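Batch manifest line 600
LIGAND: adenosine-5'-triphosphate
JOB: complex structure
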Amino acid sequence: MDIFRALKSYYWQDKGFLWGSVVGLAIATALGLVYPLLLRTLIDDMIIPSEYSGVLGLSLAAVGIIFVKAGFQYVHGFSGGRLGNRLAYRLRNGCYEKLQQLSFSYYDTARTGDLMSRLTADIEGIRNFIGFGFAQLLNTAFLLLFGFTMMFFIDWKLTLMILAIIPVLGFVAIRFEQNIHPVFRSIRSAVGRLTVRVQENITGVRTVKSFAREPFEINKFVKENTDYRDNHLQLAGVWAKYFPMIEFIANLSVAALLLVGGWRVIDNTLTLGDLVALTGMLGLIVAPLWTLGFQINNYTQSKASGERLLELLNQPIAVKNNSKALVLDNNEVKGHIRYEDVSFRYTNRDDLPSALLGFNLNAPAGSVIGFLGGTGSGKSTAVGLLLRTYDVGEGSLTLDGIDVRHIELASLRSQTAIVFQESFLFSTTIKENISYGFPNATSEEIEEAARLAQAEGFIRELPLGYDTIVGERGMGLSGGQKQRIAIARALLSKPKILILDDATSALDMETEHEIQMAIRQVMAGRTVFMIAHRISTLRRADEIVVLERGHTIQRGTHDKLVRQPGLYRETYRIQYADRPEELDAQVDASTKASERRVTG
Ligand SMILES: Nc1ncnc2c1ncn2[C@@H]1O[C@H](COP(=O)(O)OP(=O)(O)OP(=O)(O)O)[C@@H](O)[C@H]1O
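JOB STATUS: finished
ARTIFACT:
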């Protein structure tokens, strides 16, 4: 019940419906128990003494009870439906909001399929239980309470005899619950894994097909599917054991009542009407006991679902606003960025050394900073810290002298725009994709951004132009076209700080050059961080930082770095090997002379 207490904030505001559902069902149940009493009156007071004058009144009373009972059943159904659906609605919103708040670090290990199944199947489990299952469990409890009380007043000795069986039933039910709960938990996570398989396979279908790994993928799926099937077989095994047991015990009580009760009727210590009423009531009580298994099943299933939802809802948020977070004034932000002795290690990768070590950088407002380095050298980590994708471990990182950890997240991120190497497009129009970060942009502004990102030409050629739907359910675009839309998206908001994380890698040199020119124009006086593997992308930067395994190994302008032996010049030589005249013009003669002295 702790799980449902923890979820109280999602349904307690509808406690009126909760009570409506519970009270409606309690009254309908109690009214149902009146039938055997009417039958007793019919037999003992009318049929046996042949007094038929009251039969009409009795029949009318029975019809009246049917109507009232139906009314209360309606109240139960209506309230339960409202309660369950409102709860599911709030839970879905709550989980989705939580997913928006969770930091980048959560998504490093989260699996899409698993999250999807939490937001669908698990919420459905909770909706069923809180809306109906809970009231049905209570119904069983009411039936036991009201039924045995009435039976007690008819004949307490027979009632006590039957009551002795109830603890046995209770014991079996509790054992069942204990056995079935872990099975349900593994079924839930097996569903999650199965969904992950399907989702990953569909997302990565191109890779799967191009490597002809379909059989491997099928094997992986079959393994998960087998696991899922085995879990269900285990479930069926528990059911198969439990059902006959509970039915046997329940029928035993009816048989005992008929045997001892029948004996007493023959003995004249019990009226026939009493025996019929007792049997009728016991039948009413035993019927839901047979479904107690289903009800407990429903309860455990929703408990397992509740656990998974609470795990998501209670997930700590790694990067969040502190209590005195500063909201930046748009007009005041200059874009001066300073890293001082910044070190950072990914907490989920303790096996790796720090991704960034003692990193220093002073980027005055309006400067263009380039980053070069091998894969995994820490470039993305360095720029990501600025957006607070993660918070810096040691050292400080400031924007206009303010530690970024003290700046409100949304306010900080609204000053920056980032273009990743992998551009993500939403399943909507090109227009909406470009204006994603700036929804109020006019068509002219959107088109201007597209022009600057060199995207205008190919967009115009599409059948519906800016209204063409792209993304998962839309037109396929090339990698370079997607990158240009992502660049347009970033340029549209005219951010104070622009981060290009290998954002032009899919473009040809000429297009890249034109985009660079446009960026210079839009970003004049604004700060630009540019990660690239091409020297041509970086050469005009005010400062270029060369990273290796998290360490800064070189820094300076292009002109300075091509004169120094090191990774930058090596990269330059490799990339310009087919244009030696350019290489020679760049590399200072004196450096060459000194090198000759050293080597020669
Ligand atoms: N989200 C993450 N969780 C754990 N480790 C990470 C994560 N992102 C990066 N790393 C690790 O941190 C180190 C630096 O990675 P980073 O992405 O900053 O390198 P990079 O220079 O940008 O590489 P690339 O040029 O390939 O994009 C690498 O060892 C990488 O494996």
